Amino acid sequence: MFAWSPDVNQSGPTEFVFRVFTTVPELQALLFLLFLLLYLMILCGNTAIIWAVRAHSSLRTPMYFFLSNLSFLEICYTSVVVPLMLSNILGAQKPIPLAGCGAQMFFFVTLGSTDCFLLAVMAYDRYVAIRHPLHYALIMTQKLCVQMVVCALGLALFLSLQLTSLIFTLPFCGHRREINHFLCDVPPVLRLACADTRVHQAVLYVVGILVLTVPFLLICVSYVFITSAILCIRSAEGRRRAFSTCSSHLAVVLLQYGCCSLVYLRPRSSTSEDEDRQIALVYTFVTPLLNPLIYTLRNKDVKGALRSAIISKAASDTS
């Protein structure tokens, strides 16, 4: 899958190192503790969502099935990046081999793409729930929900495999190259190739359009129909509840797609490596952290399920 040209590896196999955030030991320790705390909060928050959905029978509906899958994706997504990132904050730069960099890119792109596709699936679920409430249970069957998640993952795997294998057939000059990033993301790795990358840039834009633009347009179309249906609800309380159900999902969509589009769909001439690294911190830490917070704080069902699950767990431990 990954190949490199022998004429550019005269001093041994190609390795990469990540550019350090800072060389000041005190700031390194502070950043390490900050990112570790955020990572633990992401793990706890998303695990709590999965636990609540599995433990509470009232949450075994398509919406919460997709939400628990989203939380699982967020855990995997951050775990591909953050442990290696933390290990590189303290001490000397630790090299990552070419194959290891390719593996991280493959899983990062796969999980991130699945995340985007799943948000589009969740928009369709809200569309069916609000536009066709009487037929919701008949349309959104368990089989269809599983098929939609599997299709999202399968498409993400296919696109990620093509993109990653294409990039890692490029030659990388020198034995050790520094990536101006904290992970093996596509744009910073492409910048290190000592070959013409115009075709690879074009493929990246095509994949970006398929992963970001197309699902986002589908979400927008879904919300046009959803909004028109909500406005037809006579009860003010009914309209408020419907808007509340959708607003959490919409907030996550805007944050996720907005940040990713700034990195992957901007023209290369207008991009800055430092800006890309800063934006990547948002969709690596902020979005996975906000997902459980947004859905929990704005959803009485999830809050109630978490509360009852914690109480029942505490009661079983004391008995």
Automatic annotation (TrEMBL):
It comes from the Eukaryota. InterPro entries: GPCR_Rhodpsn (IPR000276), GPCR_Rhodpsn_7TM (IPR017452), Olfact_rcpt (IPR000725). Putative odorant or sperm cell receptor. One of its GO terms (cellular component) is plasma membrane. Keywords: Cell membrane, G-protein coupled receptor, Membrane, Olfaction, Receptor, Sensory transduction, Transducer, Transmembrane, Transmembrane helix. It is a multi-pass membrane protein. It comes from Camelus bactrianus (Bactrian camel). Belongs to the G-protein coupled receptor 1 family. GO terms for molecular function: G protein-coupled receptor activity; olfactory receptor activity. This is Olfactory receptor. CDD domains: 7tmA_OR10A-like (cd15225).
